[in-house]
Amino acid sequence: MSGKAWVFGDNLDTDMLAPGIYMKFGIEEIAKHCLEAVEPRFATEVKSGDIVVGGKNFGMGSSREQAAGALRHLGVDAVIAPSFAGLFYRNAFNLGLPLLVCADAGGIRAGDRLEVDAESGRIINLTQNNTLACEAIPPHLMAMVRDGGLLGHLEKRLAKNKDKQA
Amino acid sequence: MPQTLAQKLVARAAGVPSVTPGDIVTCKVDLAMMHDSGGPRRVKPMLEKLGAKVWDPDKVVLITDHYLPANDEDSRKIIRIAREWAGEAGVKNFHDGEGICHVVLPEKGHLRPGMFVVGGDSHSPTGGAFGTYMFGIGATEMLGVLVTGEIWLRVPHTIMVEWDGRLAKGVSAKDMMLFLCGRFGMDGGQYQAVEYSGSAIAALSMQERMTMANMTAEFGGQAGLIAPDAVTRSWLETVGVHDIDCSTWHSEKDAALLAHHRFDAAALAPQVAAPHSPAKSDAVAAFGNIAINMAYIGACTGAKLDDLRMAAAVLRGRRAAKGVRLMVAPASAKDQKAAEAEGTLGVLMDAGAELLPNACNACAGYGNYLLDDKAVTISTTARNFKGRMGSTAAQIYLGSPYTVAASAVTGRIADPRELMS
């Protein structure tokens, strides 16, 4: 499985990912406007399995998890950046969207084909024919990604508790 | 090992004697605050899907502020869900239409030093002004807290930001925070705990301390802490919180810090952030002749009673320049009432201000007062991201209430000290 890289700059904020004026709507509507302020083609042209590559402090700003939810809704498989804003980082994993901290993310060019393995923390750039190493994702967050996010994780946990009680 | 204030607060919540920065711990949550946007409309369906109940309704505070006034059916629905859910879930701490959550929360006596609190909003670090470890989370993570009463945390390092000396007349907490964003960028806080200390911080009023803690969000910290002292104690007394502990909740001497920055408050000039980032802050003098057509005094960051007082100190006996729309959205009903009683609000109204509801309004891109393509605004709010307050073509500058008021009077970005001498 590989996806196309969409490349953005530093400090990409949550208002760009999920504009405030659309926040009263559901994720389908918000996602239509995802990143339109910086890349009007993004929401219509991004394909399932594509990868977003950002600069430092990706996702800064609001606590609105729709910023990560919109990317997930559009089919984005992972986000790669040299650093993420803390709140966005938590939100993305809670929604099952893996984020990869990669110091060398700057070398990825728009349109590159990437193969991302969140479990091993490895990115293969098929276009440039190189491999990038990422920081390891903490095990408890990787477990959450496997469960499809915190909601799925809680579902499992509650089911286990019920089994114990039964 | 000597512990920082942040470590002490996290250790208490984790139920251990001490913690080490970088370790991942599970903390018990003393209080969870939600608002209408990220609150019931998002968590209620998920709670139902799980068939789960709130772990402790008495530890939940629900405040409506984002979609008020509810001007359309979508907004009305969001507010209606909040009101109904408060009843269904047995949440008695429900403050409906009384102002912005970060200001209403302490105003209602919900915060005290030593607590560990999560808020469903990025400006939740505001609570740190009271020596509370408080940080923002998203709606799904709030669901996790509501179901389990717990949350994971990577024990933060502490970045100590010490301000000594005395702020000049016309310079405020907002200027200190814009300066920090300009100097270190919006990731300067590295999602660690930022602690503000020094004689200039000790001299700040409680609401000015809240502005420091509030804008820790823009500075990129997870929490923004100020050790509680006599100022904290006397402010909390006025909201019915008594017997607070000021002896435990401070950083120990020689506790390990990630960084220790020292600044001279007396040397600080009023700061202004250029579009579209608080990190584009510089001294007001660097901005030359920039005409504005709107001056916005609003938000948890910039429209508390003390903020309104700062604006009034400049606007007394003056009017907004022709062609400048001056808007004031007091952060809470209580602060508005106090401002009215003491004459502060009258000064603002006499200056030509339009009074907006006690809600988030345009600060977060909500309500009836969004910026259009031609808007050039200077605002007391915290963020000037592209499109944040409406049109992506709008130009948003940020400044203190003094600076925004002075700019309203002159019709261009102005140094308030020139009107205050």
Strand order across the biggest sheet of chain A? 4-3-2-1-5-6-7
Write the element-wise H/E pattern of chain A from the N-terminal end onward. EHHHEHEHEEEEHH
- Report the portion of residues of chain A in β strands: 15-25%
Question: For the record, what is the CATH homologous superfamily label of the largest domain in chain B?
Answer: Aconitase, domain 3
The CATH class of the largest domain in chain B, by name, is Alpha Beta
What share of the residues of chain B lie within helices? 25-40%
Walk me through this protein's architecture:
The complex is a heterodimer of chains A (166) and B (421). In chain A, 33% of the residues lie in helices and 17% in strands. Chain A has 166 residues and is of the alpha/beta class. Chain A has a single domain, classed as Alpha-Beta Barrel (Aconitase, domain 4). In chain A, strands 4-3-2-1-5-6-7 form a seven-stranded mixed sheet. In chain A, a hairpin with a 4-residue loop joins strand 6 and strand 7. The longest helix of chain A has 16 residues, at 150-165. Chain B has 421 residues and is of the alpha/beta class. Chain B has two domains: 5-246 and 255-264, Aconitase, domain 3, CATH 3.30.499; 271-420, Aconitase, domain 3 (2-Layer Sandwich). Chain B contains 16 helices and 18 strands. Chain B has helices at residues 5-14, 40-50, 73-89, 101-107, 139-148, 173-184, 199-202, 206-214, 216-219, 230-238, 299-302, 305-315, 333-342, 344-350, 401-410, 417-420, and strands at residues 24-28, 31-35, 60-64, 93-96, 116-119, 133-136, 150-154, 158-164, 193-197, 223-225, 259-264, 271-273, 281-283, 294-297, 325-328, 354-355, 376-379, 395-398. In chain B, helix 12 packs parallel to helix 15 (401-410). The longest helix of chain B is centred in the N-terminal third of the chain and has 17 residues, at 73-89. Chain B is globular, with a radius of gyration of 20 Å. Classes of the chains: A alpha/beta (166), B alpha/beta (421). Chain A binds chain B through residues 11, 13, 15-16, 19-21, 23-25, 37, 56-57, 60-65, 68, 83, 85-87, 89-91, 94-95, 138, 140, 149-151, 154-155, 158, and chain B through 24, 37-38, 46, 49-52, 66-67, 72, 74-75, 78, 119-122, 124, 136-141, 143-144, 147-148, 152, 185-187, 191, 220, 222, 277, 279, 364-366, 370, 383, 385-388, 390, 392.
